[in-house]
Amino acid sequence: PDAVHPLVLDRLPERRPMLLERQNRAEAAWHVLTKGDLTALQFLPRWEECASELELAGVQLSDRQLLLGYLLKVGDAQRAEVLQDRRWYHEAGGDAVRGVL
Question: 45 in the Ramachandran plot: left (φ > 0), alpha (ψ -120 to 50) or beta?
C-alpha cells in the first residue's frame, strides 16, 4: 500500500477535469437550456442544475444575469406572464407587493 499511494497521487490530477474544461461544459449546458414544451415543474430542476453547475465551476452570474437568462429560456409567452407576476412579501416595514423587476 505504501508504494501504491504515491502512484495514485501522481495520477489523480490527470483524472480531474481542468477548471477551464468544467467551466466550458457548464456554460455550454447553460446556453442550450430551454424550457420548450416542459412544464414549469419539469424545467425548474434543469434550470437549478445548470445554475448550480455554473456556480460550482466558478462562473458567477449576478441575480440580474440569472433573471435575464431565465426570461430568455422560458420563451415569449411565459416571459410576459413572468413579468406580470406580482407577489406579497413580508418586510420589516410592513407587507409589500413587488414584481419581478
Answer: alpha
Residue 96: Cβ within 10 Å count: 10
Look up the pTM and report it. 0.70
> By the 8 A CB rule, do 57 and 26 touch?
yes
CA angle 28, 71, 92 (to 5 degrees): 120
Q: How far apart are CA 83 and CA 101, in angstroms?
A: 7
Residue with cell string 495514485: 8
In the chain, what are the helix, strand and coil shares in percent, each to the nearest 5?
Answer: 65, 10, 25
Q: What is the mean pLDDT of residues 3-9?
A: 75
pLDDT of residue 18: 83
